[in-house]
Design a protein that fits this description.
By secondary structure, the chain is an alpha+beta fold. Helices cover 12% and strands 30% of the residues.
């Protein structure tokens, strides 16, 4: 009897350890940092397909978007944390800065996006010939060579990159023009150009509403961002409460189909800061 009690007690202690570990991991993910795996090329070259990073949830405070959705049960974040939903507010809220790379939830379907914050509440934003016009002034850009990558299927979605020098066959060198864009205040980052996207390179003037933000991808010709309204599957203006957090640092990066393929990890992207 004593041996059976001992075995039962050992199983219970193991179960408690697992429960505590899961609770701590859930608390860590909900309140502090959320892991994020880059699935698409919309933020090249700042973020590459296969980059693995942690999103700083403390940067902007907390809203319903801070809660991880339970998609296996069909529950979105606003259902998991209904007490934080509404009025476009945040608990311990802080304002994001122009130029931040931000993870947010799409205002309609709730999927997570990662883009660069360009327009603050009250700003006007327009694209003219692929250039950003912010509050009536064109953002300065300077030519900085080419971004080059191999024409091959990338990441788990197995998509081919878009090339300025197309057509490019498998294994060929895919090229895009690389420019350095400068925001008011002097913040700089690389943006890529691969083609004339028509409606996306020449847009109407967007007036950012109060409590909302305007986002663009750095890979301007391959990004579903605030230029695209909801009927084009884009996020449009993103409410303050939909922000999840700020991307600060890449932990590691895989050029293969899975982050578990450690032999495909890129040696130059460990703990790389997100500019």
């Amino acid at each position: 009897m004593a041996e059976k009690t001992s075995v039962t007690g050992g199983v219970w202690e193991t179960a408690k350890t697992i429960i505590y570990a899961l609770a701590i991991a859930g608390l860590f993910r909900s309140l502090l940092f959320q892991p994020f795996w880059i699935p698409s090329g919309s933020m090249k070259e700042t973020l590459l397909i296969g980059d693995f990073l942690f999103v700083n949830k403390m940067a902007y405070g907390y809203s319903h978007a801070s809660c991880p959705p339970l998609r296996i049960l069909g529950l979105d974040s606003n259902v998991v944390c209904p007490f934080l939903d509404g009025d476009n507010t945040r608990l311990w809220g802080a304002e994001p800065e122009r130029g931040d790379v931000v993870v947010f939830r799409h205002p309609v379907h709730g999927k997570e996006y990662i883009k660069r914050l360009i327009g603050l509440p009250g700003d006007t934003v327009q694209m003219q010939d692929g250039r950003v016009v912010l509050n009536g002034k064109i953002l300065p850009q300077r030519y900085d060579g080419e971004f080059r990558e191999v024409m091959e299927q990338q990441g788990s979605q197995r998509r081919y990159p878009e090339c300025e020098n197309r057509p490019v066959g498998d294994g060929g060198l895919c090229k895009k023009t690389r420019n350095i864009e400068t925001l008011p205040g002097g913040r700089e980052y690389a943006v890529l150009n691969a083609s004339d996207r028509g409606w996306a390179d020449n847009t109407r003037v967007f007036k950012v509403p109060a409590g909302h933000y305007f986002f663009l991808g750095d890979n301007r010709d391959n990004s579903q961002d605030s230029r695209a309204p909801h009927n084009r599957q884009g996020p449009g203006f993103v409410p303050y409460e939909n922000l999840i957090g700020r991307a600060d640092r890449i932990m590691f990066s895989s050029s293969g189909r899975s982050m578990l393929f450690f032999w495909t990890w890129r040696s130059d992207r460990y703990f790389k800061a997100v500019q």
